[in-house]
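Tutorial handout. Part one gives the primary structure; part two gives the three-dimensional structure as tokens.
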Amino acid sequence: MAPLLRSYDAFAKPIDSIRERSLSGGFITLFASITAALLFLSQIIVYLQGQTRHSMILAESTPSLLFDDLLSSSSTSKKKLAIAAASSDHRIPMRVHVTFPHLNCNAIDYSQDGNSLSSGSFMHYHVAPFTFVKRKPTLSEYKKAAFKYSSDATIIDKKKLEEGCTIIGTIQIPRVGSVLSISVSPEAWRRATSMISFGVDLLSSGNPDPFHGRLPNVTHYIHDVTFGAPFPLGSNPLQNAHHVMDNGSGVALANVMVKLVPTTYQRTFHAVQETYQASITRHIVQPETLASQQSTLLPGLLITYDFTPLAVRHVESRENWLVFVSSLLGIVGGVFVTVSLVSGFVVNSAQAVAKKLD
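Part two.
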């Protein structure tokens, strides 16, 4: 049995006494070893990083309008049903952080779907968790909003902070298109226009004119507006956006249109994460355009958002570990075989040339 197996030995070993070790062979072996080690390490890094596959599917529809109808109902049981539905996956959080450096909080109103702060319906329209407040800006917020670069601001009078306002908070929105407006309040706008037109505050009730005889400057800075969880692989275009109304009057409307793409992101060994990617277009509508179109919109910020019918799926995965091991073995063996063939070809060619010269 032993002689039979010995005859099939494919790894015949040369006798040490007839093997010749050379300096050039040592360099070739060292080069092959370094190359194999580098390829081996790069293969491990590529395997650990994984691959992200992208695909598009039709987005699933949700009965959000039904829940809005239940929420607006006078029935307590229907409202409880709407709140329970809102706490599930039928609504997403919309986080807002905007600073108006030249507009007092008393002169700001915000609204959504016809429900406004001034009418009191905004608070009742939204469901818990709900936080949406107006407050004085911090020094850092004011610097970002009042100056394009914070290094331009050296010393700021604390009275300047009293003139500004920051709107910050989170509201739960249904997965249907809508409009969020943060603008000059109707009363403040009427007071400002009456002062400009007639020189008299026709609506004053003992309170001083908040704009000091000027039109309201609605320049603002969007620190962050986020829909749902942030997408890990992309940036948010509604972050650190500066809208300067440099037309002399400070009156204009920043119109921001947002297309939200439902996105699922799944990492290896992690749960599926539902996020939204935002694609935006924006432009500043000047007061002349608002007047010529007889628009009822007030100066400020208008965010119009809608959801696309297509969803994007990002799946991060790794190849089968058997394929990974096979590639590692193939790298090590392939490098040494290739180097051996090349070195053998070079040596044999050099010997053949030397014989001809002799």
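Part three, for discussion. Residues 321-357 form the longest helix (37 residues). The first strand starts at residue 51 and ends at 58.
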